[in-house]
Amino acid sequence: MTADCGGLSMISFLILPMQRVTRLPLLMDTICQKTSTDLEEYHSAVKALKSISKLVKQCNDGARRMERTEQMYTIQKQMEFGKIKPFPLVSASRWLQKRGELAVCTEELSIFWKAFSNKSYYLFLFNDVLIVTRKKSEESYLVMDYATLEQIEVQLLGSSEGQLASGSPRSSSSPNLNMFKVVMKRNSEGKEEQIALVAESPSDRARWVIALQHHKHTDNDDLNKEDLPQVEIIKGYRAKQPDELSLQQADVVLVLHKVEGWFQGERLRDGERGWFPSSCATEITNRIAVERNVRRMERLRKETDV
Questions:
Q1: C or N terminus of the chain, fewer CB within 10 Å?
Q2: pLDDT digits (tens, 9 = 90+) for 282-299
Q3: What one-character DSSP code corresponds to residue 46?
């Protein structure tokens, strides 16, 4: 790293070509908007837009598919099922959405609480199944139970769902704000099982609850996009967790949820969703700009099938 490189590491320069490719559809869309529709150049630009968008989609899909497959094989090797009936984890249609360690709620936690009790579970949440494990080492997990997401219900403990959805600024180290219950109506043995868990913070709990409930919602397709807040990214962010969203400077994102310093949003240029720090973004307050961004998003999705 040198001053000439802006203090950036080698990996930053290796991923720059891919970052430029993902921005090409927006560039071609801008050219289309600024070209008269009665010119031959306009029709050429439209064809180029569709071709570039198809290329970008193939690049994204290929990279995502390879990354997910490698990740699934790695996780499968790290899991020990012991007496639990083995679950065939590796599948082309399955991917990891969230993972992490959560304390198991006990009676002592309601009086005196620490970040983690002596008993904790490490959860792996995939797009179709939740696997509950106990961490044996950094690369070894003993499976305690699992259930498909259709058989799972989530119950908030300590605050209302309305507070969670609205992203109330109230924050505390009290476990009452960080607790939630996972109900497995049909677990690995075909029985009902309940687990009360404690997250490290209200924002961590919000991310877990929203992820666990995601399959029961319609991906917010019924929402009016123009009613959602929009932010522009002022500082690039690289995802550190499976449920986070990598962003580049000047990206525009529709905000779906706000909670304690974090936004969950949908990236305008390709529809990808995830969480990112609110400090990376500034809200777009100009109504004309908001409406223009929504129209552009809808046009890109329709014309390029991205």
A1: N
A2: 999 999 999 988 888 877
A3: H
